[in-house]
Amino acid sequence: MTNGGAETANALVMPVVAAALIDQKGRVLIQQRPLGKPLAGLWEFPGGKVERNESPEAALVRELDEELGIHVEPAALTASGFASEPLGNRHLLLLLFCCRRWHGELRALDGQGLTWLPPNDLDTLPMPASDRSLAATLRLSAV
């Protein structure tokens, strides 16, 4: 998803990272946004904001530990796509990484719902537009 133009040129770019965690059956983990957060109830790829002076890979390693209690080596992350979307006075740049190897047991540390789905079934749940765009990319690439 892209949207160029003058309104985007002056927007603050907000880099966000997300992971398509892929299990041995080829299913992808998605999580439900908890109540009380923007877009509550929608399903998304786990991840979060990139902090100042943080690489996208380091941010995703940190976010996966904070949200799911797993450890991921940066070398296990493969850049897989991105989505770009205006959000008021900000502009979301969502970077997707695929990951097939991690250590630890996945837990919903923020109380969010978790589910594993085949890539072709990701569009059966309500998702933010940027995540929906990335789900389509995963279907086309046949993770």
Could you explain the architecture of this structure?
By secondary structure, this protein is α+β, with helices and mostly antiparallel strands. The chain has a single domain (6-141), classed as Nucleoside Triphosphate Pyrophosphohydrolase. The chain has helices at residues 6-9, 56-68, 129-141; strands spanning 12-21, 28-32, 43-44, 47-49, 77-87, 90-99, 114-117. A hairpin with a 2-residue loop joins strand 5 and strand 6 (90-99). It is globular, with a radius of gyration of 15 Å.
List the helices and strands and how they pair.
Blueprint: H1 6-9, E1 12-21, E2 28-32, E3 43-44, E4 47-49, H2 56-68, E5 77-87, E6 90-99, E7 114-117, H3 129-141
Parallel strand pairs: 1-6
Antiparallel strand pairs: 1-4, 2-3, 2-7, 5-6
Q: How would you sum up this structure in a few lines?
A:
The protein has 143 residues and is an alpha+beta fold. Helices cover 21% and strands 31% of the residues. It has one domain: Alpha-Beta Complex (Nucleoside Triphosphate Pyrophosphohydrolase), CATH 3.90.79.10.
